[in-house]
Amino acid sequence: MDKKILIADYHPIVVDGITQVIETFDCLTKLNKVVVDGLELKNVLSLYYPDVLIIDLSLPNFEGLKDIKSIKRSFKEVKILIFNTENNIALELNCIKAGAAGYLCKTASIDVFRLALERVSNGGIYISEELSRLLSSNKDMIDNNLR
How many domains does the chain fold into? Predict the structure, then answer.
């Protein structure tokens, strides 16, 4: 079954790259909409209700963690994949805690992007290998930060 994908990114070359990768998926995804601004995003979410939202945290008129929480409150079934320029484990963890289903740095390979999108679109969680290692080796961090 096709999944409706919404891309929220204001970099045309990034949008084109994501689009080309999504088009190679076999019946997994269907790219339907692109927005370039946080204000437009809020309107489009209400009308379009995608299965997956791929978003850059630096999107104009988007307030990061606050807006992720807001989207998850209003659109519980939408799975959010953060596709961001910043490779920051603390930010990644905070995005997951805020309701994102995945966090991926824009330096990721196409194969890693594909894996993250497939996992998120199928209801799973995608975290970086670095965060996974950190969480698996530090039980105290899990106890203190994932409550």
Answer: 1
CATH number at residue 106: 3.40.50.2300
Work out the average pLDDT over 27-42: 78
Q: What does pTM read for this prediction?
A: 0.88
Mean pLDDT of the chain: 88
DSSP per-residue codes, 31-58: EEEEE-SHHHHHHHHHHH--SEEEE-TT
Collapsing DSSP to helix, strand or coil, 69 comes out as helix
Domain range spanning residue 59? 3-145
Quote the pLDDT of residue 27.
54
Q: Give Cα 10 distance to the centre of its chain.
A: 15
Strand partners, 126: 102
Q: Residue for token digits 């204000």?
A: 39
Output the six-digit token pair for 119: 């996992």
Q: Tell me how crowded residue 95 is: count the other CB atoms within 10 A of its CB.
A: 24
Q: Which pLDDT score, from 0 to 100, does residue 95 have?
A: 97
